[in-house]
User: Which sequence fits this backbone?
């Protein structure tokens, strides 16, 4: 039976991961994600989880050790943030290329510089194209649920890809929330033991991570792209099963009051909950506002995005990262690209907000909806705006 | 691979006839490293997982879809064979504990070149050794980044010309001395550390077998002649490997729990010049520079002898 708990989300994430019985955990401390591995090491030290916990000397080694462990057939977990993820980045694209189903929790934090330990999503966006399944949680319950789902998705025989689960640093990692924590029996029934396709053992000789010359590299890339796109089917199946077993529903894209909405906000991560409040306020004022929360970042849910924005006049994509010198925030450029060919589409504008821990209260979303109302009449000059820059 | 007739008669217990590193790989002619790898595999035997850093050996042995490895093998990247190995070792340990794999010892062996060991993989190596993983790390040192075209590394010797510190009117090539990786490993408290060279196959294989038996980290520094990068004829690979030892430039020794022991000690050391003159990478060196190297080699050899004669094993000291 699931248990109702009140817990810091990072701690709850570690508890949920432990329920999945990971066999090798390799992690390096970094704010704001540290509580996840810290608490996992507590669980191992208490003897509640039989796992090898490797206190590596860097994040580069953390993900490297995960490759070795997963290659040898162990269920493998790591967690990091920001600079740590950047330091891993040499290894990040190798993990999906080797089809190693490592699960990683990322407590999203701004990338240096200037050095900043607070939340935005520039860290994961920097790794966007690496070939991982990538998803975002809005709150503590979703972190718990998605951590468990992540192993099932990653290790599915038709997937065998790494999954990163993103939760906003501090805004989620350090917040105490009420949650339902599944029990061990329920998780065991949901998540079968890891069955690797191949593993490093003399009883079954295999070479992993071989050299791909130009005659094969192309094909390897195509295969990676296809398997990532196909993982969508398994992700949806796993979410469906989760709903049946635990009653909580997960979709690649989730709408809130979008049915008749003229102005729709699109968020990724925890600010979706604040934006909901803003939508309610605007509705009270008679503004037809709605909200789309993007949960699945890779594989990108093109179809669902198209469906979700139908009927909207203005779509405001809220990004928490900048693509410097580019077309706007990374979410914006994907969404606009998804809509480009559509005969009927909303005007898409981009507000980049909440960088490096800058607070985004309800009033900011209200102001952004007002900007969108203006855009209904006169389209803004710029594709994107970094919102709330002082002195501008 | 054809084996000499009556092999068992001539070399009864020296080595395993089975090849775990197949012929047909793309190593250069006369590659000392490929020879060393072949010997290493024979000494390790079947219950081994190889973790390979990026470098010549990975490139020449695993062009997809072919592989020269008849042992389980993994390569992830350049700087991390020690940390990938840590993960493999941890996984083998817990999977065995949980009864998911056969209940027998399988040794994790990490290999890397000098670049992957002395330089870019140094942190990962230090971490794995410090954490005490049951891993044997073998560095195949050919004294430069040969895979990318003979660039200077921390293992390149004083006076060698490489493509990133070439000799010229204003340069003698590398102007610093080689990093002493063996001593750094001893300083980590690694209980078995040894130097070796493919030109002394029995010595090397004995050390590999010894290191394999250690429960915990062990380290072998295997000097591997690279005819391409050292600019020597391919046919002289083994000879040059002998000269590096006979001149005292690279002495063969082992350090067991802090106790130093020479495993091959020539009665007299040959002049370093004999070794240097064999190689194009030292071609520009003037007699006074060669003398400078000779003086350094003599001093380093004396320092080593001082340790061999003076130092006790940690076990003795504990008693």
Assistant:
């Amino acid at each position: 039976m699931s248990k109702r708990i009140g817990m810091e989300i990072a701690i709850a994430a570690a508890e949920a991961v432990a329920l999945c019985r990971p066999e090798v955990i390799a992690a390096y401390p970094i704010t704001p994600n540290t509580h996840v591995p810290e608490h996992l090491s507590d669980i191992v030290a208490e003897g509640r989880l039989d796992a090898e916990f490797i206190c590596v000397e860097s994040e580069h080694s953390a993900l490297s050790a995960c490759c070795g462990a997963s290659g040898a057939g162990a269920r493998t977990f790591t967690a990091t943030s920001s600079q740590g993820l950047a330091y891993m980045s040499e290894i990040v694209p190798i993990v999906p290329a080797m089809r190693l189903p490592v699960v990683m929790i990322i407590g999203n934090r701004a990338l240096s510089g200037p050095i900043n330990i607070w939340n935005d999503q520039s860290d994961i966006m920097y790794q966007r194209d690496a070939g991982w399944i990538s998803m975002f949680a809005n709150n503590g319950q979703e972190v718990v649920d998605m951590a468990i789902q992540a192993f099932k998705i990653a290790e599915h025989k038709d997937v065998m890809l790494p999954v990163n689960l993103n939760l906003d640093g501090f805004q989620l990692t350090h917040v105490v929330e009420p949650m339902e924590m599944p029990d061990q029996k329920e998780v065991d029934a949901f998540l079968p033991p890891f069955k690797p396709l191949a593993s490093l053992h003399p009883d079954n000789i295999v070479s992993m991570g071989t050299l791909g010359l130009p005659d094969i590299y192309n094909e390897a890339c195509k295969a990676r792209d296809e398997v990532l796109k196909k993982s969508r089917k398994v992700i949806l199946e796993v979410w469906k099963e989760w709903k049946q077993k635990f009653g909580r529903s997960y979709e690649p894209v989730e709408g809130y009051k979008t049915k008749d909405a003229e102005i729709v906000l699109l968020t990724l991560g925890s600010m979706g909950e604040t934006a909901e409040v803003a939508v309610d306020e605007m509705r009270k004022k008679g503004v037809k506002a709605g909200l789309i929360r993007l949960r699945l970042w890779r594989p990108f849910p093109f179809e669902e995005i198209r469906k979700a924005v139908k009927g909207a006049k203005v779509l405001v994509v809220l990004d928490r990262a900048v693509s410097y010198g580019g077309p706007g925030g990374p979410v914006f450029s994907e969404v606009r690209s998804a809509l480009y060919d559509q005969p009927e589409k909303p005007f898409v504008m981009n507000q980049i907000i909440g960088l490096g821990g800058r607070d985004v209260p309800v009033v900011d979303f209200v102001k952004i909806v007002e900007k969108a109302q203006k855009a209904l009449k006169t389209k803004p000059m710029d594709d994107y705006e970094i919102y709330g820059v002082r002195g501008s | 691979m054809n084996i000499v007739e009556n092999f068992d008669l001539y070399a009864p217990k020296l080595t395993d006839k089975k090849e775990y590193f197949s012929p047909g790989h793309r190593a250069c002619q006369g590659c000392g490293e490929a020879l060393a790898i072949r010997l290493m595999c024979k000494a390790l035997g079947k219950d081994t997982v190889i973790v390979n850093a990026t470098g010549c050996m990975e490139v020449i042995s695993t062009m997809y879809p072919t592989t020269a490895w008849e042992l389980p093998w993994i390569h992830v990247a350049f700087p991390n064979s020690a940390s990938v190995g840590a993960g493999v070792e941890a996984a083998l340990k817990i999977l065995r504990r949980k009864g998911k794999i056969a209940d027998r010892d399988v040794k994790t062996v990490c290999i890397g070149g000098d670049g992957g060991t002395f330089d870019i993989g140094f942190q990962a190596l230090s971490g794995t050794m410090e954490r005490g993983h049951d891993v044997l790390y073998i560095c195949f040192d050919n004294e430069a980044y040969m895979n990318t075209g003979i660039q200077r590394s921390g293992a390149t010797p004083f006076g060698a010309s490489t493509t990133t510190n070439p000799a010229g009117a204003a340069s003698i090539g590398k102007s610093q001395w080689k990093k002493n990786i063996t001593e750094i490993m001893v300083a980590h408290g690694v209980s078995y550390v040894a130097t070796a060279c493919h030109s002394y196959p029995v010595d090397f294989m004995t050390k590999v077998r010894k290191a394999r038996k250690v429960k915990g980290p062990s380290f072998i520094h295997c000097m591997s002649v690279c005819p391409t990068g050292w600019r020597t004829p391919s046919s002289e690979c083994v000879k040059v490997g002998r000269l590096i030892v006979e001149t005292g430039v690279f002495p063969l020794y082992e350090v067991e729990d802090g106790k130093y022991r020479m495993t091959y000690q020539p009665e007299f050391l040959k002049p370093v010049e004999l070794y240097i003159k064999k190689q194009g990478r030292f071609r520009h060196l003037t007699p006074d520079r060669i003398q400078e190297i000779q003086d350094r080699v003599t001093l380093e050899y004396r320092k080593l002898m001082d340790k061999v004669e003076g130092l006790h094993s940690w076990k003795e000291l504990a008693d």
Observations:
- The mean pLDDT of chain A is 97.
- The CA atoms of residues 107 and 169 of chain A lie 5 Å apart.
- Chain A has two domains: 3-246, 253-386.
